[in-house]
Amino acid sequence: MPGPMNRVPRGVKPTVENPGKIFLRLMKLVFKGNMLKWIFIAVCIFLSVQATVQGMLFTQTLIDKHITPALNGGGSLSETLPADILRVALILAGGFLAAYLQQLVQVFLTQGTMQRIRDRMFEHMESLPIRYFDSHSHGDIMSMYTNDVDTFRQMVSMSIPQLVNSIITIVSVLISMIFLNGWLTLLSIFLIGIMILITKKVSGLSGKYFVKQQKDLGAVNGYIEEMMTGQKVVKVFCHEEESIKGFKALNDGLCDSAYNANRYANLIGPINMQMSNVNYVIIAVVGAALAMGGVGGFTLGGLASFLTLNKSFSMPINQISMQFASVIMSLAGADRIFKLLDEQSETDDGYVTLVNAREGANGLEESEERTGRWAWKHFHKASGETDYVELKGDVVFDGVDFSYVPEKQILFDVKLFAKPGQKIAFVGSTGAGKTTITNLINRFYDIQDGKIRYDGININKIKKNDLRHSLGIVLQDTHLFTGTVADNIRYGKLDATDEEVIAAAKLANAHNFIKKLPKGYDTQLTGDGANLSQGQRQLLSIARAAIADPPVLILDEATSSIDTRTEKIVQRGMDSLMKGRTTFVIAHRLSTVQNSDCIMVLEQGRIVERGTHDELIEQKGRYYKLYTGNSIA
Amino acid sequence: MIRKILSYVKEYKAASIVTPCFMILEVIMEMIVPYLMGILVDDGINAEGGGNLGVILLVGGFMIVAALVGLFAGIMGGKYGAKASTGLAKNLRQGMFEKIQTFSFSNIDRFSTAGLVTRLTTDVTNVQNAYQMALRMCMRAPASLVIALVMSFIISPKIALIYLGATVFLAIVLSILISKTTKVFSQAFPKYDELNASVQENVSGIRVVKAFVREDHEVKKFKKASAAIRKIFTKAELLISINNPVMNITSYTCILLVSWVGANMIVNSGQTELQTGDLISLLSYCMSILFSLMMVSMVFVMMTMSLASMRRIGEVLSEEPDITNPENPVMEIPDGSISFNGVSFKYDKQAQENILDDINVSIKAGETVGIIGGTGSGKTTLVSLISRLYDVSDGSVLVGGRDVREYDIETLRDEVSVVLQKNVLFSGSITENLSWGIRRSRPDRDTLTDEQILEECKRACKLACIDDFVDSLPDGYNTRIEQGGTNVSGGQKQRLCIARALVKKPKILVLDDSTSAVDTATDAAIRNAFANEIPDTTKIIISQRIMSVCHADRIIVMDDGRVSGIGTHDELLKNNEIYKDIYESQTGADADFDERGKD
Q: In this structure, are A163 and A238 located in the same domain?
């Protein structure tokens, strides 16, 4: 396709501009319309954290209120113990219920958000002009649906709830700890501070190696892709050993950097764990000393609870930094999705519409039911009148200039006219602008200068959808869709009956091969019709155009990748399709061109010759040279 | 299959064994801490006479030592785990890559290029992660489970029984849950693939969608699919979310139960059966046990997810190359004559119909032979047999009077130079690309100077009529070709590929539709150069264009896997219907005059 390809190379993480803005937008998208659910989730998280903290504090009650007095005093447990246990059990049960409810809502919220975003992306993508698809690689577009959408899942199901949970936990635990013993709490915060510092240092180190690993991985993957694509050439040139040697060097490099990256990443776990153990020990020893001295009324039970709390204090702190990092990472993906959503949709200022028509008292008039006759309904703003012009297929180009990108003009001052039912052919070398001309008629692209008229109406005034409905296209690349053979033909007219489908297939010469398919018209096609031959696919795409029954047809190199013998069959299908329609043919073989009403010879964006076959041969110009070019030997 | 993968651990065996050892050491240290804590409480704080600070400090010291040993073990475990897993990944990649180099064309066809790339990249990464996980967690989690249980039994068998019961209960619940969710997920993922396929279809077929104004239709289809995805994934995730409450309820029931039973035991026995410190230790172990159970289930899920990757890698590693060198290979090919004797061929042994059927053709050394016929008539397959890209199913192919299966493969392929239909150039300079054609068997290979190599490249480029183009480039023969040759036109690429094949100076040259993007005049010039400069080389030219083959000494017309006719242009015009058909469709009234691939 023409147009620049701006691909971001794999493995290189694009930097995000304006992360704050993207973050806010992301939040808006995630929260909008779901505020109630999110509030519910926050409340549930709060309740379940409180319940957990109460559970941890229970150890204190158990030891201080029940065991120690019993040991020191009467030798039997107080009678309130079962009641205390029951109370805690109820609190905990409430907490679990809240946690479970939170999870349930979370699932619905996550999946709902994913669906919403997917639908929005797809709907918007469908509205984008062809230009967008020219300038973005298909792989990049796909990766938005597969990888970047996952960003939102991560965000909704993990990052946000985890962050909320962590913050609530930290605050609750901290309060309980201060309540148990202020000095020990200070010590604990100090120790955790040290732990965070060390962790940060190590993860910085591992991050450096991860960047290198990513780079090496990119190199290895690139080499693999290149060599696997060219594997048959490697075989033909007995180049296996060199190919292995090149691979080994890259592979060893990757192993090295991957080892380092993983080694440092693996440090974080043990360091965190053992640091928290050391932390535990120090608190235990100091706390034990405090408890023995009974400083500030600190007790053994208090210590036991404090130790448990202390353990669940460091975890959420790690969580916060982890989830934060993942939010930052996901911004790049969100940014790409937003860019897609911000892309300008195809604009359509047209107001002339296509309506069913019938002969009325004062000429053509609009009809409710299908009449087989069509008219352009043209409302004139100046006079306030509406008139109807019969759809015939009269196309005029007047001084059309066009370029895909401003710096490079593709078409220069193209003039042509096609009367209803005429066959116009375009001939010329690759890149001369043949396909471009046909892309302008259906407004895949808009022209820079000049005018294109359809039945006397400037096509800019016609509603795009109605304009395209009136044009049938058969492309060189067929593009069939997943579905049955009948579904694919019906693509041209969604409400077509089975009889119409078969009639169209017969017209296109496709009926015979379809009958021989295992399930006939109900045969399932997958992967762009991979189970059909090129010729068969082309016949289906002709049938698809035929069922739409458009007054104007565009055939773009429809037979170029088919061998001569198959082409004959396809050609017959096309010939019957062309009957009675204005047809634009981008020609490949002379047989298609020769009986055209007019042949346009294009060269570097200009029509250099025009006329019938005989006239052009007579001229002995460019056409003549192209025609006889084959005879050079 | 797992054994096959594991055999690639090789030099990283030591690291693979050491890693779990360190992990177990780490777990032991971790489990000692709560035990010491119990001693600290009972013999330190609660010691007779209002506590014993000396014991507290001593035990505290031990606990710190235990933590430090644990830290050391953890770091070493992480280090060797990384070493072993990245090493295995390296070996697997290398092993697969080397294996693929031995593959014949039919092996490659079986996997497809995309399939091989996925196996070498994504699948290896999956296995690497799973292996690291397995080494570090597989031992760690069960070990911590067992040790915590044992410690509990040592402290109090009665209470340990409660844990054992809880463990068994959870294990059963978790395994039911896992099997249920995997089932749902295995239904969900194909749906997800379908959705992606539909996006793909729309992206590549957007012109069709827009031309038929089917945007709304497609959006409706997509929304239906995405709603279905939402439904099935919601179902799966709801199942998973049962996990947490079950886990929590079990663990806290345990804690409360132990609190109740333990408190009673302490008080009733007067601290003989159980002490306060013991209870604190036991509560710690309770958490460890349940947490490690969770880990085990996670590891299990991770492993099953990597199983598919392992299977795919295993397929490559255990694939046997179809074509191998004969035992006593013949190293010399006398001349460029070729003869097909009753050759039949099919790609798949189980296939009903032959691709080639009973081909009998003899070609003299130095002869120029054209091959023409419709798509699928077997042209490419026929010439692939000459240099053993595929082996015949029946009959034999002789080169220089000998069955090709008797020659050394490299010798054969050096002498039979094939320019493939789907050809590629590699990233690197033009000279680097062309010097692929320099034979490895050349005695002077290592002493060739850059100038000599350049000379050979120039000679080949001249023959392929690409020398003028290369000379016109600012960097000449040092011009860098991008991956896949995207920075040269189709016709230039084809001619560079021809030049690359010519550098070999082969006895037989096969061009498989190799000038389809070259304009007709240049095409003719190349053929003239061949006729004048390398008259002794046997030239086989496959083409769709009659003009490319009509001047050959003889033309073979292929039709549906059989030879429909052999002869000169004039002979065939007279007595071969198919040839006449093609000729007429391409000349005169039916001429193909689209100037394809004008540079």
A: no
Q: What is the CATH T-level fold of the domain B338-425+483-590, as seen in this structure? A: Rossmann fold (3.40.50)
Tokens at A316, concatenated:
């959420």
User: Can you tell me whether residue B396 is helix, strand or coil?
Assistant: strand
Provide the residue range defining the domain that includes A564. Answer: 396-631
Domain positions in chain B: 2-317, 338-425+483-590
Contact flag A564-B44 (C-beta cutoff 8 Å):
no
Query: Considering only residues 397 to 456 of chain B, which have any Cβ-Cβ distance to chain A shorter than 8 Å?
Result: 409-410, 413-414, 417-418, 420, 422-424, 426-427, 436-437, 440
CA–CA gap between residue A20 and residue A26 (Å, rounded): 10
Q: B541-570: string of b/e by CB count within 10 Å (b at 16+)?
A: bbbbbbbbbbbbebbbbbbebebbbbbebe
- Measured CA angle at A196 (ends A192, A202), to 5 deg: 145
On whether both A326 and A252 belong to a single domain, the answer is no
CB count in 10 Å sphere of residue B577: 12
Total residues belonging to chain A: 633
SS3 B293: helix
CA distance A322 to chain B (A): 19
For position A16, what pLDDT does the model report?
65
CA dist list (Å): A563 to A117, B26, B373: 45, 70, 9
Please answer yes or no on whether A231 and B104 come within 8 Å at the CB atom: no
How many interface pairs between A and B have CB atoms less than 8 angstroms apart?
428
Residues A568-583 pLDDT 10s: 777 777 777 888 888 8
Q: Give the pair of three-digit tokens for residue A375.
A: 């008219």
Q: Per the CB < 8 Å rule, is A234 touching B101? A: yes
Q: Which of B100, B107, B419, B522 to mutate to test the interface with A (most CBs of A within 10 A)?
A: B100
Q: Cβ–Cβ of B93/A220 closer than 8 Å?
A: yes
> Domain check: are A321 and A424 in the same one?
no
Q: What does R_g of chain B's alpha carbons equal in angstroms?
A: 36
Label residue A566 by pLDDT band (50, 70, 90). Answer: low
Q: Give the pLDDT confidence of A483-512 residue by residue, as tens digits.
A: 899 999 999 888 889 999 999 998 888 888
- Topology adopted by domain B2-317: ABC transporter transmembrane region fold (1.20.1560)
Alpha carbon of B504: minimum distance to chain A alpha carbons (Å): 9
